[in-house]
Amino acid sequence: MSRPFVLGLTGSIGMGKSTVAAMFARRGVPVFDADAEVRRMQGPAGSLLPAIEAAFPGTTGPDGVDRARLGARVFGDPVALARLEAIVHPAVRALREAFLIEHSGAPLVVFDIPLLFEKGGADEVDAICVVSAPPAVQRARVLARERMTPERFAEILALQMPDAEKRDRADHVIDTGRSLAETDAAVGALVEQLSRT
Question: Would you identify the CATH topology of the domain 1-30+108-197?
Answer without folding.
Answer: Rossmann fold (3.40.50)
